[in-house]
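Now for a concrete sample entry.
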Amino acid sequence: MSQSPSSSSSSSPQLSPPLEIDESLTLIPGLPNDVATLIISFVPYSHHGRLKSTCKSWRLFLSSKTLITLRHIHHRRKLSHLLCIFPQDPSLVSPYLFDPNNLAWSALRPMPCSPYVYGLCNFTSISVGPYLYVIGGSLFDTRSFPMDRPSPSSSAFRFDFRTSSWERLAPMLSPRGSFACAALPNSGQILVAGGGSRHSLFAAAGSRMNSVERYDIVKDEWVALDGLPSFRAGCVGFFVKNGEEEREFWVMGGYGEARTISGVFPVDEYYRDAVVMELKNGNGGGNWREVGDMWDDGERTRLGKIVVIEDDEDRGRPGVYMLDGNDILRYDMASNRWCEESHVPRKAPSDSSFGFVVLDGELHVISLLKAVRSAETRRLRHHKKPGTLYIQIYNPKRKSWRSLITKPPFQDPLDFNTAVICTIRL
């Protein structure tokens, strides 16, 4: 699973101001189209696919730019909070949206593919307004040698929900996978830091880097910023408000140089600290400062999965949470320590893991309940059922848990160690 915080950004580029409504189409008989469009726009996004078959006018309207633009302009407080799950390489397997409130699934189009590369993983997905970004990652390139080692990718793609289509964006200046990534709220900018690429079998092999870049959504260009103090991959990034207009970009955890055991087996050296860059007037260029170790020797070896709730109850500072096994911890910035927050009510099976994501201010812990195979499917060893997703939801303000169960549309079981999950509001 991606190690970047899975919280949907509230920032967005300029939406198309004019709402183009085809007056020759009748959406609801007896009502003006401007009233009808407003009524239909209240329908949750997850139901749009099924409503398109109602009639031609609905199909055209539900497939137009007008609908998403209308929802973001007039219904910002009532937008659907959706999970976006990438089970595998998005150019080969369709990503899916899941609406927890309506238990509804909808598939997105696969990302454009190249005949020379395959097996994309360790990429980052992040949402900004009505757009979904897929940035970087590690992949196999048939034009490189040796072919059994992944190469970092610099590619960036964006899915526009107004047109239901992918577009290729300007590539990053430096290819990278397993990196820190966050969208700067209300600025139209995305920051990436660190990363690299690593071998699929020998975890400590591969590259690390310290470069930092800022992406301007409107200009579609990447700009290099001051690099991290040291090489760092597998890290997470988020923003902390510092005053009225200034923010800090935090990069936490990850691994740096590898060491070997007995001179043979490579082992990652994991960081116990964080580094912080001050962004002045929404632009980078400030110096990095180092935050000390967040835990002592013997307490733990590495960070678990991290998610961030933007502008949590602590005076505008984000709530940073970690899933460590079956425990949920919260980061206290004042003491630079992780504090116990709660425990997952139902533990994951010993041979599986949790997915961890923030949705609408709540922590979602996702596990897979494996289906019991029949005698026939046991004979067909290659046939694997996707099982059932069990989602345990924790509300940090109420200190309470609830749960839901859903049947996913995937063809194969979901592996939370490699799947990428993010959120989006539509």
The domain at 76-425 is CATH 2.120.10.80 (Neuraminidase). Residues 239 and 249 are 5 Å apart (CA to CA). The longest strand covers residues 305-314. Residues 6-19, 372-381 have pLDDT under 50 and may be disordered.
